[in-house]
Amino acid sequence: MLPRMSSEGAKAFIARWAAASASERANSQPFLCELCDLLGVAKPDPTRVTGYEFEYEVTEHHPDGSTTKGRIDLYKRKCFVLESKQFQVAKEEASQLELVAQEAGVIEKKKSSQPVRGTGAWDESA
């Protein structure tokens, strides 16, 4: 179970990252390290001996027998694989980060007559 994060800390985190540029390469690792701090969980291990690391190397095997080298943005053995993607949203739309914080009750939901992405109302409007 995750520790309860402070509302102020979550709001500051959201404000900081909502204004970030759309550059996955520049922002992914700092974002994830700060998210670990906010959640009170360990950060990835720079020694690469624990199986919890950034830029985990993988080899992709293709049907023709060839292979290519790749990397997983964040990997934790027997737990998860995380691939970072960053995109811009319209100013009037809530970011995915804001939606998660709203669902967790960390920040209040914005009042709107428009359906919110990821809700039943959104599915019905599509």
Report what the structure shows:
The chain is an alpha+beta fold. It has one domain. 33% of the residues lie in helices and 18% in strands. The chain is built from 4 helices and 3 strands. Strands 1-2-3 form a 3-stranded antiparallel beta sheet, with no helix packed on it. A hairpin with a 5-residue loop joins strand 1 and strand 2 (67-76). The protein is globular.
The gross shape turns out to be: globular
Counting helices, strands and paired strands, the structural category is alpha+beta
Distance between the termini: 35 Å
Going across the biggest sheet, name each strand in turn.
1-2-3
Radius of gyration: 18 Å
Mean pLDDT equals 81
Number of domains: 1
Q: Strand count, sense and closure of the main sheet?
A: 3 strands, antiparallel
Helix and strand element order:
HHEEEHH
How big a fraction of the residues is strand?
Answer: 15-25%
Low-pLDDT segments = none
User: What is the percent of helical residues?
Assistant: 25-40%
Please give the number of β-strands: 3
Instruction: Count the DSSP helices.
Output: 4
